[in-house]
């Protein structure tokens, strides 16, 4: 039975005496005040203050009415807090009662509870109320997830926006639509055809399909509940949203404070607080609103022609429909989609003209250079792959930021879920933040019991410097000769890798990294190098507060420090009165194995550990881990606070990364894949004169190449074959391989085979 057939059948009629008798025999209710309520096709009667008697249209099938009863029961069970009518069982324990109306037509009767509040239709709609309506639409949709009923799929409801072509065709045949006078309305089926077709591939289910202002109740500025499940059917959830959005937009206009786009933004905010939209859904939303406006207009005209007695109810939306339809249809399809994408947060960045030129013009030019001679425009990541704007898939052999792989679903979901719930600074208690700190402490040696969160590795090293100067009274730093520790003014001075020619900071001295024969890299050697650097500082009138070392000496060309050498650095630092800092930003988080930290692989205990890049797998978060007495030294004179450090979302990212490392055993895999990778690289060294020493531990490798020029050619060749790597070392001639830990043997083999090919190509050109 189609809605059109139901609408052609007059609504049930029942005298007050018959209503009273029905209530007595069906539900045992005595005499109570009764009052008819407006309805399109049924009979609704308010019974006292607490119930509504509903008589379904005689043309309505029993299956459709049973569907409505069942869907209400499901929503009540899945979301008990959702305020909506509840079906009152009959004396016999049934949800429906068979009866007849005054004309002798068979009808189905039921009694439902009243929802408190007044309907919103006709009220002045604020953005706050519109946001609550959007939330209610999403909440109702979520409550119906998982519900199935055989009658839901076959309902021929003309109100369904997907039936726009049929409705327009019928209006043309009946003459209520003149294409010559209203070409926009008549042409809508063609304009929105693609979007209607796309609904079949979008998230769908049984939806309320009529969360409109007529069916939403409110009191004192707050939405109280939803009524009338009479239009429920199976459809795309965005089609359900389009119905709600249309109803709200009709309440914009001269007598309302909020404009059309203000209300649209509010509805989308409320909806997405509970149920985020996919970009594909937003892509069709505007067209579905247009379809709903057209369907509403044409059904109203058709109904008005045959029901003069109910004209006010039938035509109540006509003027608003015409106004909103004209405003939205005046926009091009692209403009309409673009506005909704921006409101929903699903807009892609606009690319127009040469992106590199545009970037250079507004982002510092040479001060902020890009990788590679021909910069890459990367638009997507997936596991060990990056994807360019041209669709190229590139193997990522460089980025430790994406430690668990690009766009890992676990991390992505944890971040977005928490961001949708709460994100604020760390001056409030939050379980996720405390849990992350506890988990980090649990991975550290005894004594390292205090975590201070930051937003980056640079900020972590900056805070470590403050801790060290307060704890020791020193004012100088000792760093490896070509180290890198950050980008702030002070950290740039602690990063000789970045020094311009002739730059020699007064309070910084350097020691040699572990080059050469491993048997000569003893604890005494390392301690002696620290002592010599401290003496250099003393000649300038400074005393060291901190000895900093990247545990993998990656900026030095990936140098494998023997455990004794690292222990010597610790001993040397303490002998000079300084603290020792292990910078794990590049080599930590499982890159060198299940112990998680490179310093732990060597069996040493630093005074301070700094963490950064991989900690949030792309979300900015870092940390300092130290002893409580060191933190207390800073606390005697200062407080430490960083607005975006240790936010709930940062903690969600950090906890998710640790979860993935543990669940997928990525640190264990890093050891196996890294060993396989270096074996392959050493095999290349045996066949290519241009390949020198191969170093590294875990999933980290440094490969010596003869000179910066050749190294640059090799790097460019790899990029040309869709493999991304980097160069490091004092001479810029060490190929650095530092991929996401999701690499498997096949990715290592692809890297080695591509490098082999590039080396042959470069050699052939020389």
How are the SSEs placed, and which strands pair?
Elements lengths: L2 H6 L7 H12 L6 E4 L5 E5 L3 E5 L6 H17 L8 E2 L8 E4 L5 E8 L4 E2 L7 H17 L20 H11 L8 H9 L1 H6 L5 E4 L8 E4 L2 E5 L6 E4 H13 L10 H15 L4 H28 L4 H4 L3 H12 L3 H12 L10 H8 L15 E5 L2 E4 L4 E4 L12 H13 L9 H12 L7 E5 L2 H16 L3 E5 L8 H5 L14 E4 L11 H17 L4 E7 L12 H13 L3 E5 L14 H5 L5 E4 L10 E5 L1 H8 L12 H16 L2 H22 L6 E2 L5 E4 L3 H13 L2 E2 L1 E3 L5 E4 L7 H21 L1
Parallel strand pairs: 14-24, 16-17, 16-18, 18-19, 19-20
Antiparallel strand pairs: 1-2, 2-3, 3-6, 4-6, 5-6, 7-9, 8-11, 9-10, 12-13, 13-14, 15-21, 20-21, 22-23, 23-26, 25-26
Helix pairs in contact: 4-8, 4-9, 5-6, 5-10, 6-10, 8-9, 8-10, 10-12, 10-13, 15-23, 16-23, 17-22, 19-20, 24-26, 25-26
Assign an overall shape: elongated
Which regions have little confidence, pLDDT < 50, spanning 5+ residues?
A: none
Total number of β-strand segments? 26
Strand content: 5-15%
Radius of gyration: 35 Å
Structure, described:
This protein is an alpha+beta fold and 766 residues long. Helices cover 43% and strands 14% of the residues. It has 26 helices and 26 strands. A 7-stranded mixed beta sheet has the order 15-21-20-19-18-16-17, sandwiched between helices. Helix 4 runs parallel beside helix 9. The chain is elongated and about 105 Å long. The termini are far apart.
